[in-house]
Amino acid sequence: MATDYFGVLGLARDASDSDIKRAYRRLARDLHPDVNPDPEAKERFQEVTRAYEALTDPEKRRIVDLGGDPFDTGGGGGNGFGNAGFGGLGDIMDAFFGGATTRGPRGRTRAGRDALIPIELELDETVFGTVKELTVDTAVLCDVCAGAGTAPGTHVTTCTTCSGRGEVQSVQRSFLGQVMTSRPCPTCSGTGQVIPEPCVKCAGDGRVRSRRTISVKVPAGVEDGMRIRLTGQGEVGPGGGPAGDLYVEIHERPHDVFTRDGEDLHCRVTLPMTSAALGTTLNLKTLDGEQEIDIQPGTQSGSVLKMRAQGAPRLRATGRGGLVVHVDVVTPTKLDAEQEKLVRELAALRGEDQPESNREAQGGLFSRVRDAFHGR
């Protein structure tokens, strides 16, 4: 049976990529070994990380959607599906043509799996880059047997069940007659070799689990959801095989002031009505430090100002994005007597003290709207 990776994350099978990311992030925060030292939590963290990897990789997700397991390497042709009936294409050929296809033993040494670990960064760390020390828990090469899986002074021997072929053959009767089929040897699991005296530390696997600390250089300009690939820092394979890669996934924490849209940063500033009308200069705290921004007289609420080269660096190009400043103009809700007098005087000077009496202007506007509806 293929693992229900959606069920591992507590999701329905039609879950979107964002649903998968949110579910994994929630579980990883509770189960990560740095937070929860419980051995069961450690196993559960590995399980949800494996599910997240299966559902976020497009090719692995395709296999899951088809009912298979993308991590199933046992006899299914490497496509995530187990054997049913015949043991594969070779056995089908055997059944129809009565011969045995020799596949030979498979190697004990296999490549390791990739690993995935999330990290949370502040906005300034993703914008300017940083170096993080991460604790990872992966399979590493056994330091006692150096991956051989044998006890010191001993060696692997040829399997006596299959005589080193890695497979055993059997003859079955079918409507086609006698059919010879081949199966992986149950004694040596298809490798053609056995370990008489396994290494006491790794039990013959050639690898052990270990917690280690690595430095990760986060380049300037990374965005939420991006992954940094560390070649050869993943799981060491069975039999001391080459290690997979480690992927570090970036999660950017929300900022109190700025929001991010690609290379641009956005923020909002609030201006009193008088400053918007007369113009002013603001001292704005940016990620690069305090910067001055000029507010032109007559600035309206909803105006957008852009400060060049104050955003995030472009990852695959030169230069930086901008800082987009959104202006909100605030109208006072309470005025004292003196303030009200001055505002009324200003309104009178501008002819705005009785806007409802300006019937000619209103009539001009409304007549144009009326004419538009009547086709004039």
Question: Architecture of the largest domain, according to CATH?
Answer: Sandwich
Q: Name the overall outline.
A: elongated
Name of the level-1 CATH class of the largest domain: Mainly Beta
CATH superfamily of the largest domain: Urease metallochaperone UreE, N-terminal domain
Count of β-strands: 15
The side-by-side strand order for the widest beta sheet comes to 10-11-15-14
Q: Please report which band the strand proportion falls in: under 5%, 5-15%, 15-25%, 25-35%, 35-45% or over 45%.
A: 25-35%
Coarse structural class: alpha+beta
Q: Helix and strand string, N-terminal first?
A: HHHHHEHEEEEEEEEEEHEEEEHH
How much helix is in the residues?
A: 25-40%
The helix count comes to 9
CATH topology description of the largest domain: HSP40/DNAj peptide-binding domain
User: Overall mean pLDDT score?
Assistant: 83
> How many domain regions?
5
The major β-sheet equals: 4 strands, mixed
Distance between the termini: 74 Å
**Rg calculated over all Cα atoms:** 34 Å
Contiguous runs where pLDDT drops below 50 for at least 5 residues: 74-102, 357-370
